[in-house]
Write a structure and sequence with these properties.
The protein has one domain (64-286): 2-enoyl-CoA Hydratase, Chain A, domain 1, CATH 3.90.226.10. Helices cover 43% and strands 16% of the residues. The chain is built from eleven helices and nine strands. The strands form two sheets. A seven-stranded mixed sheet has the order 3-4-5-6-7-8-9, sandwiched between helices. It has a two-stranded antiparallel sheet with strand order 1-2. It is globular. 37% of the residues are buried. It binds zinc ion. The site of zinc ion (ZN) has 8 residues, from loops. Zinc ion is lined by residues 37, 39-40, 42, 56, 58-59, 61.
């Protein structure tokens, strides 16, 4: 065997070893590496997107983000303490649609990594202690059931006890159909819990993100002392198609966007994600 043959053999062996790992790159792994902007269709490297707080580097489209990613973006490192995470929903109506409600909950937990459609706790925003709640759209469309209501009510109670401002970040499709009337009752429950903050002169800031609809937009999300929204977030009660069919009129193109709501006086500010933490801190400081 010549030296040349030895190298040939070694190269073939290396190629054989390399082959299986190339086959292991699945479509899922590829999609985790790259993301396509739903607005401008640009393909962006996920690491770059994450470094830009999940905002498109080309067109500033704000991607939907999970509750825990939001906490990481908004709350100072090592200051977050989740509260009431163990409150679980019950299936009072024995509700079944495509599958029984308890099965839907197990699936939603697995999919989102959250225990319910809202995560609540205490954390610091640029050094300012805040009672903070963020909704999780990945958990049954961020729908408001009895646990969402209870966690918000208890967050307000904790804020009163500790004399803290409250910040709630919403994203929701509305009330949770699996809980019927119990779900609708949360509108009144959250509203009265947050009203109690006023009596104690505590600040409540509501941040609306894409999308915020139905029972959430018709209750606590629109009750903030200050209401702000991320750019181009879709915010409304019923969807535009339902409204168009009901009133038989064509709606404006920017209908139910943050910018439209700002123009018509329904919200106070449109704030980009990169400015959100700083803006919240400034407002909290101002009201201290
Ligand atoms: Zn884009």
């Amino acid at each position: 065997m010549s030296i040349k043959d030895l190298f040939k053999f070694k190269r073939r062996k290396n190629l054989e070893q390399a082959k299986p790992s190339q086959e292991l790159i699945s479509e899922q792994e590829l999609s985790e590496l790259w993301a396509q902007c739903p607005s401008c269709k640009t393909t962006i490297y996920t690491t770059e997107l994450k470094a830009n707080l999940m905002v498109c580097t080309k067109c500033e489209h704000h991607f939907r983000i999970s509750s825990y990613d939001r906490i990481e973006q908004m709350i100072d490192a090592d200051t977050w303490e989740e509260i009431n995470g163990s409150i679980k929903p019950t299936d009072a109506l024995n509700f079944v649609d495509l599958k029984p409600y308890p099965e839907s909950i197990i699936g939603a937990k697995k999919k989102s990594g959250a225990t319910e459609a809202i995560v609540t706790g205490i954390g610091k925003i640029n050094g300012l202690e805040t009672a903070f709640g963020v909704m999780e759209f990945g958990f049954l469309g961020g729908s408001m059931g009895s646990v969402v209501g209870e966690r918000i009510a208890r967050l307000a109670e904790t804020a009163i006890q500790k004399k803290l401002p409250v910040v709630l970040i919403s994203t929701s499709g509305g009330a949770r159909m699996h809980e019927g009337l119990l779900s609708l009752m949360q509108m009144a429950k959250t509203s009265s819990a947050l009203l109690a903050l006023k009596k104690h002169k505590l600040l409540f800031i509501s941040v609306l993100t894409d999308p915020t609809y139905g029972g959430v937009s018709a209750s606590f999300a629109m009750l903030g002392d200050i209401i702000m929204a991320e750019p181009k977030a879709k915010i409304g009660f019923a969807g535009p198609r339902v409204i168009e069919e009901t009133i038989r009129q064509k709606l404006p193109k920017d209908f139910q966007t943050s910018e439209y709501l700002l123009k018509h006086g329904q919200i106070d500010l449109v704030v980009s994600r990169k400015e959100l933490k700083k803006t919240l801190a400034q407002l909290i400081k101002m009201h201290k």
